[in-house]
């Protein structure tokens, strides 16, 4: 559901531009609101969430999909953990739909999906692995990399139950805004992929903005 935010950027606590192929990893405190802004349009922001006080509790696609009865996320969607707790809630969204099924690009999936010669291309999983290695204080390792949300990504479900990766439905300036219901570690990879039609084969920056 399309809902615009009343928040103004000039009152934000901070903002971070995230180039394609880079990551964002910070704690968003309970009660704070985080906006992911698609600066140029049709980008994909592959995102994981963890309980900052107990990182073994993390975003669960299964619980989130089951409880809301929908594989897509938008305004009003609650992001649930693997313990059934609400981690965040989408409070504004000008894109309208976000993917929970497509997963993140990796060297292995690039090989299967595209071609053998794509194996060594940078992927979201690489960004996540770099993030946990460079931020050991969060206590995460590669074993904690699980299923993610693909904000702005368009992955329709076919009548046969399959998945397709289609052109993005976002546009320059579109955003999704989430309010934290607990202290959460946000681990976002701004997708670097040149093979994905979602970003028109031209990966571009996103911006993360946080308000108290």
Structure characterization notes:
With 212 residues, this protein is of the alpha+beta class. It has one domain. It is 12% helix and 29% strand. The chain contains 3 helices and 12 strands, in the order E-E-E-E-H-E-E-E-E-H-H-E-E-E-E. The chain has helices at 61-68, 107-113, 124-134, and strands at residues 14-18, 23-28, 33-38, 45-51, 72-73, 78-80, 86-93, 98-99, 149-151, 174-180, 184-190, 206-211. The strands form 3 sheets. It has a 6-stranded antiparallel beta sheet. The chain has a 4-stranded antiparallel beta sheet with strand order 2-11-4-9, covered by helices on one side. It is globular, with a radius of gyration of 16 Å. The mean pLDDT is 90.
What's a quick, concise take on this entry?
The protein is an alpha+beta fold and 212 residues long.
Summary keywords:
six-stranded antiparallel sheet, 212 residues, single chain, alpha+beta, 3 helices, four-stranded antiparallel sheet
Residue fraction in strands: 25-35%
So what's the overall shape?
globular
Class by SSE composition:
alpha+beta
Largest sheet, in brief, is:
6 strands, antiparallel
Mean pLDDT: 90
Number of strands: 12
Domain DUF1989: 17-185
Protein name: Urea carboxylase
Pfam families: DUF1989 (PF09347)
Organism: Vibrio superstes NBRC 103154
